Amino acid sequence: MSALTALNEPGDDPADDSVGRHHEWDLVIAHAPMFAVTAWRYLDQLAVSMRPATVDVADNTLRCFARFLVVEHPDLVGFVDVRRTHVEGFKLFFVAHVTAAGKPPARNTIRQRFGMLRSFFDRIIEWDWDDAPMRIPIFSVDVPVADDPLPRFLDDVQAARLAAAAAAAAPFDRLVIELLSRTGMRVGELCTLERDAIVELNNAPWLRVPVGKLHNDRLIPLHPNAARLLADWIADHPPIDRLLLHHHGQPLNRHQVTRIVRRVAAGAGLGHVHPHQLRHTLATQAINRGMRLEAIATMLGHRSLRMTLTYARIANKTVADEYASASAKIDALYTATDPEQRLQQLAGEHRRMLANGWCNRPVATDCAYETICEGCGYYQTTIEFRPTLRAQADHAERNHQTDRAAIYNRLLDTLPADTG
User: Fold this and answer.
1) What would you measure as the largest C-alpha separation in the chain, in angstroms?
2) Which pairs from 19-27 meet CB under 8 Å and 24+ separation?
3) Whole-number Å distance between alpha carbons of 141 and 87
4) b or e along 105-135 (b: 16 or more beta carbons within 10 Å of the residue's beta carbon)?
5) CA nearest 391: which of 419, 367, 355?
6) C-alpha span between 253 and 86 (Å, rounded)
7) What global pTM score does this model have?
8) What are the distances in angstroms from CA 196 to CA 101, 209, 357?
9) How far apart are the first and last CA of the chain?
C-alpha cells in the first residue's frame, strides 16, 4: 500500500463530512501524537462557540491534513514544524483526490477545507500555542474565491404547476409544499418546528420559526391555506416534541422533505426540484411584486440586507419592466420619421439652456444642485456667452472670490479664440 493510498482508505474521504471522528486519528497518534493533541485541543475550543456540524468539518479537515503530513513528511513532530512547502503539497494532494463517487472534490469543498485550515493556523498562532508555527503557512490566495451564482428558483408558471400538483397530492405532501412555498423556511427549520410553534397575533395565525442556520428565530405570518392544512393535519396527528409528525408518528426529517418535494415536482413535470428552491421562489415572487427588501429579510431570517440583495439580482419582472420603459423611449427616438422631431427629442432629453450655457444632463437624472451649474461636468457653454462669462470672472476677481473666478476662467479657456 502506497503512502497516498493509506490516506484514501474506504470511507476516509477528505471531502466527506460524515467521517472525521477522533477514533480515526489512529495513524496520526501512532507516528506523531502531537498533531492529534493540538487538533483535539483546538476542536474542544471550537465546540464552545460553533455548531456540531462545523466542528465535524474542522475535525475532518485537520485529520486529513495531519495524516497527509505523517505519511508524506514523517520527520515532522507537530504543527509547529509545518512550512509553506508542506501546505503546497497538501493542496495538490487534496484537489487531485477522487471521492467515493469517482469525482474530484467540488470547488466549494476545496474552499471550505482550505479556509478551515487557514483559520486553524491563524487562531493557534494568535493564541500563542506552543505547537503553533512562527508564521501562518497558508494564505488567503490559497482559498478559492467563492462562486456567486444566482439562486435557482421556479418562475411563476412553474410555481403554479407545482401548486396544482401539490393540491392533488397526498395531504401530508401538500402540507409540506404549502408550508415551504408560503413561508420560505429552510428544510431544517421546518423539521424542527416546536409543538407550540403556532401563535396568535392580532387574531391571525403566525408561525414561530426556531433558531436556525443564522442563530436567530422569527415569526412568519401563516397564509390561510397553509394554516388550514396545518390545523387539519395536527388534529389527526397531535404534536409531541415537534409540530409535524410523519405518518408513522415519527418527527419529520430533511430526507423525507426532499423526497416529498421531488415527488410532487415530478408529478408537475418539473424534473429535479430541491426544497431550498421554494425558498428562493418565494423571495423572487415577493420582490417582483414590490415587497420591500427589509420585509423580505425579516421573513427569511437574514442577518443583513446583503443576503437579501441576492434576490434583487433575479427580480426579473422589475428588470424587464424598467428595460421595456427605457426601450420604448429609445425606439421612439430611432423610429421618428421627421428629422426635426428627432432633433427636438434629443434636445428635450439631453440639452437644456441655462443663463450662461447649456446643461447636457439626461432628463431622467435628478440634479441635487441649483447654483453650481458652471462647475458641473454636464455643463457646456459656447462662444456667444463669452462676454457674460468674462464679466462673471472679473466680478469674482474684484471680490477676491478665487474659486469662483477659477471656474469662469476655466470655462473661458475652453472657448475657441476670438478671431473677429
Assistant:
1) 100
2) 19/60, 20/56, 20/57, 20/59, 20/60, 20/61, 20/63, 20/64, 21/59, 22/59, 24/63, 25/63, 25/66, 27/67, 27/70, 27/71
3) 12
4) beeebbbbbbbbbbbbbeebbeeebebbbee
5) 355
6) 41
7) 0.55
8) 42, 10, 70
9) 96
CA angle at 183 for the pair 177 and 188, rounded to the nearest 5°: 75
pLDDT in tens, the chain (420 residues): 333 444 444 344 443 433 334 557 989 999 999 999 999 999 999 999 888 888 999 999 999 999 999 999 999 999 999 999 999 999 999 998 877 778 888 888 899 999 999 999 999 999 999 999 999 999 988 888 766 667 788 888 999 999 999 999 999 999 999 999 999 999 989 998 988 889 888 888 999 987 655 556 788 889 999 999 999 988 888 888 888 887 677 788 889 999 999 999 999 999 899 999 999 999 888 888 888 888 888 888 887 777 777 777 666 666 677 777 777 766 665 565 666 665 555 555 544 545 555 555 555 555 555 445 655 655 667 777 788 888 878 877 887 878 778 888 888 888 887 654
Query: Which residue in this structure is represented by grid cell 439631453?
Result: 350
Cell representation of residue 265: 415536482
Report the C-alpha gap between 276 and 368 in whole angstroms. Answer: 43
Q: What is the b/e burial string over 176-209, where b = at least 16 CB atoms within 10 angstroms of the residue's CB?
A: bbbbbbbbbbbbebbbbbeeebbeeeeeebbbeb
Local structure of 112: helix, strand or coil: helix
Report yes or no: 162 and 181 within 8 Å, Cβ to Cβ. Answer: yes
How far is 10 from 308, CA to CA, in rounded Å? 41
Return the C-alpha cell found at 387: 462676454
Residue 117's closest CA among 147, 97, 98, 94?
94
Is the domain 156-316 a CATH 2.40.370.10 member? no
Q: Confirm if 342 and 356 have CB atoms less than 8 A apart.
A: no
Sheet containing 198-201: order of strands: 198-201, 204-209, 218-221
| Dihedrals phi, psi of 225, to nearest 5 degrees | -65, -45
131 and 124 Cβ atoms separated by less than 8 Å: yes
Provide the residue ranges of all domains of the chain, joining segments of one domain with +. Answer: 3-142, 156-316, 351-414
